[in-house]
Design brief:
With 288 residues, this protein is mainly alpha-helical. The chain has 8 helices and 2 strands. The two termini are 43 Å apart. The N terminus and C terminus are likely disordered. Keywords: Membrane, Transmembrane, Transmembrane helix.
Length: 288
């Protein structure tokens, strides 16, 4: 049997996959290009921040483009749900709250490091690169420290990606499409935002850990690094891998029952009742 689907429909059938993968590929290319800019003028740590930010934003842009290119159902399907659609029903039930918590903790971490960073009135553009501590009665500097000098690009990326991804999730939850299609799109958006958050927090935690362990005078901060920042780095590494796999193939990380089983049951019950009403109306017409 010949394929009766229009040619544009067949071409766009897998465009969402291509867009997501292209976003990651373009992110790698852009990060590579950014890493070579300003050789000698830009510090290594600052270039890494720019690379991570550029890669994360490209991944988010690719997922949003994929969502815009996702084909909606072409046939009219009568459905009626007894429960409203909620965003939390479409995002990953376990990883979604974890990624949201990581986003909040990233903002809190960057605010704390910006507040504790040393301020140099004579070098405003370099403010926030180190933190000063007292070591054996002498003042010492620890760095690199993720103060404003390094965290401003991270704040900018979060300010752009967070409301955009939140809008996309709301649009997916209340838009057309099947349950599985909406789930795949929502998980991909969640993974893209998680990729940005986890990569930024992982690098910020590594900067803090290196700064606090480079001297034996860290004291309590050294113990805090061992018991808090190292486990946090491992958690971010796990989230980073999960987010990357989710962006590439959302269904590869599915580990629970299909989405909206209860709502599907309600839809079936509603349709059965509607079919029964139709049969009764037909019987009444025949009797007349």
């Amino acid at each position: 049997m010949l394929d009766s689907a229009p040619l544009p429909y067949r071409l766009l059938e897998h465009a969402d996959h291509v867009a997501r993968w292209s976003g990651l590929a373009i992110g790698v290319v852009v990060a590579q290009a950014v890493s070579t800019l300003g050789d000698g003028d830009v510090e290594f740590e600052q270039r890494v921040v720019f690379c991570i930010t550029a890669f994360g934003l490209c991944a988010v842009a690719g997922v949003l483009l994929a969502d815009a290119l996702t084909l909606r159902p072409q046939e009219a399907v009568r459905t009626a749900s007894l429960a409203p659609r909620l965003v939390r029903d479409h995002v990953p039930p376990h990883m979604g709250p974890l990624i949201a918590l990581q986003g909040v903790s990233l903002v809190a971490l960057l605010v704390i490091t910006a507040a504790t960073a040393s301020v140099d009135p004579d070098r405003v553009l370099s403010t926030g690169k180190v933190v000063h501590i007292t070591c054996n009665g002498m003042r010492a500097s620890l760095g690199p420290w993720p103060g404003l000098y390094y965290s401003l690009p991270m704040f900018g990326a979060l300010a752009i990606a967070t409301p955009t991804c939140a809008w996309a999730l709301r649009r997916i939850a209340h838009g057309p499409g099947g349950d599985q299609q909406r789930r795949d799109r929502a998980w991909a958006v969640t993974g893209a935002w998680g990729l940005l958050v986890s990569s930024q927090q992982l690098y910020a935690v590594l900067m803090i850990s290196v700064a606090l362990t480079e001297t034996g005078c860290a004291g309590v901060l050294g113990a805090l690094t061992f018991w808090v920042f190292y486990p946090l780095a491992l958690l971010n590494l796990f989230t980073l891998v999960w987010s990357l796999v989710t962006v590439v193939a959302p269904r590869a990380v599915e580990d629970e029952k299909p989405l909206d089983d209860d709502m599907a049951f309600d839809d079936m019950a509603f349709d059965d009742a509607a079919d029964l009403d139709d049969e009764r109306a037909a019987e009444g017409t025949l009797r007349r």
